[in-house]
Specification:
With 336 residues, the protein is α/β, with parallel strands linked by helices. It contains eleven helices and 13 strands.
Length: 336
Amino acid sequence: MSARRTVLLTGASGVVGRSILRERTPDGPRIIPAAHHTPIPEAEEPPVALDLTAERFGLDADSHAALAAEVDVVIHSAGLTEWGLPAERYEPINVEGTRRVVEFAEQAGATVHFMSTAFVAALAQDAPVPLGQENVCTHYIRSKQRAEWILRDSGLPHTVFRPTNLIGESTSGWTSQGQIVQLMSDWIGRGRAPFVPAHPGIRMDFLPQDLLSKAVLRAIELGDDQGEFWATYGEEAMDIETCLQLLVKHAAGRGRSLTPPPVVNADELDPDTIARTPPMTRSYLSVLRDVSEVTRCSGGVLPTSMPELRERYGIPRVDDTAAYLAGLEYAADHLG
């Protein structure tokens, strides 16, 4: 596409948003970063303060129309990603916020590229087992699924990217803030896990955030306006034993001796075993069990579009184990 496009980036201060801004090339699209009163060091122009929970993003009608007149493409990455909250907490931003993005894109005549989650696979009608309502991820996943439906039903040109759990950039390990993978890895890597609850055969599917950002920007460059892309490793993802051995290697590099905790079949685990542990341990083990359940409900291996992302968008082939180690090193040095 020869014309330089103008992109509105929602959630520009988040992990995905800041990664996209870092990956943009000088000849790439102009990106208008949008955030809710949060600094964005990577932005090349002042951010616009938008509130996706408010009508017209909190703008007056003229300002909303003026912004729409500038924009050709929307990258919608804003959202509440914290797990374990009541369903109603996700409604204003993840669901209604997407509805407002649709209204804006209709006015702008813009294509939308939506950042969903690979965990929606656990809600598929043909899922091998149903996802438990008490799972810590359930309300979050359902909110993302509903957002996808809003886009689907709108008739707007759009793509959906469904990333798995994100880690730092593939070579440097950089990330703007720690997320669940770094948090859990640090806890296990310090020898605090008495065991790891997991369902047999599941994969530990972690995606370097720059691979997602490269794919989204390339989709804009090519003018793509349809498609659903599972940004995951799928069958290529490491197994849990490999993940634990990498934590041992990382600990050794930091001068710590780590004995890998035993892996316990989550299907055979007595719930009281977790309930009897101290509060912090109970919380971590419960999250590990629930995330494993999400993967089990997705067939044990997440769906993947990685071959297509590599071929169509030129996404580099990155060893997930090397990227994971780089992310561990960065987190240890910079995230505390």
